[in-house]
Every structure is written in structure tokens, then in C-alpha cells.
């Protein structure tokens, strides 16, 4: 057995002991921690969950029609699905191709309407002649219901992005497909929203109802990630430790997140004065008002188990289903000792793909994205795949950048219209 493998159990036990005896001391004594927490819940931009929801508080406020549906997944989660059926020009007789927007990790569908109609992708697509549908994955504010469970039940949070790919994604895509009379759906995913569609495609699922897919900051391979904060949390098995302490929900503005930051922000190599940059890279093109709206409405819960699964991706060079940590448990669930891999080279070549990534993105960093691109480009015809590289963009610029409408959304819409 390798020396590092012998070391890990002792490291985990040390972390658990430290968490149990000393987390609150870390939280109260670290000025760097206080500054990082202020970044998440700044007094200037306090969290403001709106009781009216996204449709009435945001979309209708700009004069757009907005409909809300509830979709029940095969495993019982009740998801909120929003629809902007047309833009400010009003309903016409023209046929509108449906587009489904799927958000990334720790946010919800609100991210697609954060800014003004001229800046936000949800509005831009509606005004551009598309029938826009906005997904909200399990655990987010508007999708915290289940047929038998409540968010207070640990079982409610017993899932990872495997289940988003297996249940949430097909449930909303098939709903949109059926509701629009069997029209194939354009798909737009950001960050984790790209990983789940790639996972589904690699198993040859949903390709019959997806017209094309646009991947903003595609996330797949993560072993070359540049975020020191995430690398440190992954290296010390922090998500696993928090889960062992009995936590199941990860709320980015809740006490669990503060405990996580309390452990990593004492490391001098981790810059917690600017959490956006520390996690996702230095964004080039955000304005203050949009960032403030994001801080007020954006941060959303995920499961601790999902954070563990993401950590596993960072440690490995392959993309696998969730690893239960023992051959026995893996065999019980997968009928094999190691979790199955998602073979991205098996993604059907007939699905048109638009991919765009940034040179400053710490999450979907250049090395990992190029690994993904080499896999996809070798299979696809050049007419059915388009890659747009933005050297100055980081992770958040693709959904909040003031120049994203011209640099990202315009060529993406043109790609949709060609397919």
C-alpha cells in the first residue's frame, strides 16, 4: 500500500477531532474568515429571498410572461420549472423552438435573469424568438419538495449529480418536449449543468429529444483545477468529514459553509478576502449591481454528498459515478468494486455541441477543458461542434458578464439557428 494511502485515515481522524473540538474557535478568531464571510453575505447585499418567486418578482416585473410548472422526478423530487414563452414583442403565430436552461452548482434558475433584459440570457432568448424554459434542480429554494420526504430528513439529501443526470435532467427535458408537441429542445448548461448533460449523452440518453447543446464553462475533468481553496478542501477530505459529522445539506450561506471556510481560510495560500476569485477565478466583466443581485438571490443549497462527489472528480483523472468508499458498498450499488466511468468518447457525434470556456476560469480550467475538447473533437464532425475561447473570462462572466450578450450569447444563438 502506498504511503499516502496509509496516511489518509489518520488525516481524516485528525480533521474530525479538530472539527469537533476547535471549529468554533477557528470561526471566532480568524479575521480572514470574517472577511470571507462578508463576501458571501455583505451588509450591502443581504440575502433577499423573494416570497413571490422568480416569475413574479423578476420576469413579470420587466413585462415578460412567465409560467410555472412542477415536475415530479422518478425518485419523488418535485421540481420547479419556469417558462418564458415569448418576449416583449408578444405572442405571434411563429413557431418557437424550446430552449432549456440548466444552472450550475450552488445557484438556481434565477441566474439566467439576474440582470436587465438586454443582459440576461433568459430574456435575450425569449426576445430572439425562442420558447424559454428554466430548470431548478432538487434542493434549491423552489425545488425543496418531495412526495414523501422533507428537507429535514437526511434521506432528502442522499444524492449527487449522478441523480441530477439520471432523474432531474430527463424529467424536465421530457416535460418540455411533451409540452411543446414533441419539438426537440436546445439545451444550455452552465458549469454543473454541462456535466449532467455530458453524463447523460455518454450513456446515449436524451439524444433523441435534444436538438443541440450549448456548454458554458464545461465541467468534466477536474484534476487540473487551479482553485487553491477547493484543492485544499479536497486534499484534506473536508466534505467527507463534514458528512461524517452528521451534516447532509450544504447551504453556501449557512453554518456548514462557515465551518468549511473556517478550516481552509487559515491556510496562508488561500485568499479568502475575495471568495469569487478564490473559487472560480478572477472575473473580468462583472458590474456591481449584477453581483449584488446574485448575492441577494443566487446562493442555493446542494447536498454534502454532491460536494463529496465533486471532490472525487478533483482527485481522479477519470469521470466516475459516486464512490461509496468500499468495494462492498460499490458492489451493492453497481455490481462492481469500482464505480462505473462516464465514457465521454461514446457521446453520439450527431448531437451538435457549442462549447465556450475562459482562460481565467479556476473551475473549468484550460487544461481540463482541453482534455474534454480532445475527447469530443475526435468524434464530432466540424460542422456540428463549435468552440469559443475567451482568454479574459472566468467562471461567472459567462452568465453575469456585461459583455456576454455580444461575445457569448450572440454566436450561441446563431449556432442554434443553424441547427
UniProtKB/TrEMBL annotation:
It comes from the Eukaryota. Residues 1-28 form the signal peptide. Keywords: Hydrolase, Lipid degradation, Lipid metabolism, Signal. GO terms for biological process: lipid catabolic process; lipid metabolic process. The active site is at residues 191, 361, 395. Residues 59-115 form the Partial AB-hydrolase lipase domain. GO terms for molecular function: lipase activity. Belongs to the AB hydrolase superfamily. Lipase family. This is Lipase. It comes from Zea mays (Maize). The lineage of its organism: Eukaryota, Viridiplantae, Streptophyta, Embryophyta, Tracheophyta.
Amino acid at each position: 500500500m502506498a504511503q499516502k494511502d496509509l496516511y489518509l485515515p489518520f488525516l481524516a481522524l485528525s480533521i474530525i477531532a479538530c472539527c469537533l473540538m476547535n471549529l468554533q474557535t477557528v470561526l471566532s478568531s480568524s479575521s480572514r474568515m470574517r472577511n470571507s464571510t462578508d463576501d458571501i453575505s455583505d451588509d450591502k447585499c443581504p440575502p433577499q429571498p423573494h416570497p413571490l418567486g422568480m416569475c413574479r418578482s423578476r420576469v413579470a416585473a420587466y413585462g415578460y410572461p412567465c409560467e410555472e410548472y412542477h415536475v415530479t422526478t422518478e425518485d419523488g423530487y418535485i421540481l420547479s420549472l419556469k417558462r418564458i414563452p415569448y418576449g416583449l414583442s408578444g405572442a405571434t403565430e411563429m413557431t418557437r423552438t424550446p430552449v432549456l436552461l440548466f444552472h450550475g452548482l450552488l445557484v438556481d434558475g434565477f441566474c439566467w435573469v439576474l440582470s436587465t433584459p438586454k443582459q440576461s440570457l433568459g430574456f435575450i432568448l425569449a426576445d430572439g424568438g425562442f420558447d424559454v424554459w428554466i430548470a431548478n434542480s432538487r434542493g434549491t429554494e423552489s425545488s425543496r419538495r418531495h412526495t414523501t420526504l422533507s428537507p429535514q430528513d437526511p434521506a432528502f439529501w442522499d444524492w449527487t449529480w449522478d441523480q441530477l443526470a439520471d432523474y432531474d435532467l430527463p424529467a424536465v427535458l421530457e416535460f418540455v418536449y411533451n409540452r411543446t408537441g414533441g419539438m426537440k429542445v436546445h439545451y444550455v448548461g452552465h458549469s454543473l449543468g454541462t456535466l449532467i448533460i455530458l453524463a447523460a449523452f455518454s450513456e446515449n440518453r436524451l439524444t433523441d429529444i435534444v436538438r443541440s447543446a450549448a456548454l458554458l464553462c464545461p465541467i468534466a475533468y477536474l484534476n487540473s483545477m487551479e482553485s487553491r481553496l477547493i484543492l485544499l478542501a479536497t486534499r484534506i477530505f473536508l466534505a467527507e468529514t463534514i458528512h461524517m459529522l452528521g451534516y447532509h445539506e450544504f447551504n453556501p450561506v449557512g453554518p456548514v459553509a462557515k465551518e468549511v471556510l473556517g478550516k481552509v481560510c487559515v491556510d496562508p495560500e488561500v485568499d479568502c478576502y475575495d471568495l469569487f476569485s478564490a473559487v472560480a477565478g478572477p472575473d473580468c466583466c462583472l458590474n456591481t449591481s449584477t453581483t449584488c443581485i446574485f448575492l441577494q438571490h443566487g446562493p442555493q443549497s446542494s447536498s454534502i454528498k454532491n460536494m463529496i462527489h465533486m471532490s472525487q472528480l478533483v482527485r481522479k483523472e477519470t469521470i466516475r459515478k459516486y464512490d461509496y468508499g468500499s468495494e462492498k458498498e460499490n458492489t451493492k450499488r453497481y455490481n462492481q468494486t469500482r464505480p462505473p466511468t462516464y465514457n465521454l468518447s461514446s457521446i453520439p457525434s450527431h448531437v451538435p455541441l457549442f462549447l465556450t470556456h475562459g482562460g481565467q476560469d479556476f473551475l473549468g480550467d484550460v487544461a481540463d477543458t482541453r482534455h474534454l475538447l480532445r475527447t469530443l473533437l475526435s468524434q464530432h464532425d466540424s460542422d456540428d461542434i463549435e468552440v469559443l475561447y475567451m482568454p479574459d473570462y472566468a467562471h461567472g462572466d459567462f452568465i453575469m458578464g456585461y459583455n456576454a450578450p455580444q461575445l457569448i450569447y450572440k454566436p450561441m444563438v446563431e449556432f442554434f439557428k443553424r441547427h
